[in-house]
Amino acid sequence: MFNLANITSTLKTIPWFFDLSPGSMKNLASIAEFKTFRPGDIIYAEGDQHPYMYIILEGKVSLESYVPGRGELPLFTLEYLDVLGWSSMTPVVRQKNSTARVLDSTKLLAFNAKLLMELCENDCELGFIIMRRLANIVASHMLNHRLRLMELITCQNEES
Questions:
Q1: Disulfide: which of 20, 62, 63, 88 matches 98 by Cβ 3.0-4.6 Å?
Q2: Average pLDDT of the chain, as a whole number
Q3: For residue 56, which of 73, 75, 37 has the smallest C-alpha distance?
Q4: What is the pTM of this model?
Q5: pLDDT single digits (tens) 65-77
Q6: Residue 78 belongs to domain spanning
């Protein structure tokens, strides 16, 4: 029970969840858990079907993508309150499009994506809040990927 109390108090500090009712907060806490990783750990690899979505509570995680001829390239660094593993929540594409490598000792709030999807389907308030926030994350990541791709193309053209 102590762990559930810790999770509930942690959820209450995350702006994502400020609008949730006490019932939705309780349901969300029931499927969450804390996970810790050390520097150098791989949380998931590009192409994996990983079952969790995470919110970073402490530490830093690098998202990297393999580019033929260039190897693993960092896309961006995620920090406090950033979300990773969000593609686990997409109904069609669940494969990871990057590798998540831990840079600093990291503590994450982990949600089993299958259980979170079930909660979202059964609790419309929770589902709306989660999916609205995820849509913003996806849009932001797409913009960041596009900017990184343009940077790579520009660098390649300059090398030619």
A1: 63
A2: 88
A3: 37
A4: 0.86
A5: 887 887 888 888 9
A6: 32-159
Domain for residue 26, yes or no?
no
Q: Please check whether residue 25 lies inside any domain of the structure.
A: no
Rounded mean pLDDT, 14-38: 93
Which CATH number goes with the domain that contains 123? 2.60.120.10
Counting the structural domains of the chain, the total is 1
> What proportion of the chain, given as a percentage, has pLDDT over 70?
91
Q: Give me the pLDDT at residue 156, please.
A: 65
| Residue 140 maps to a domain | yes
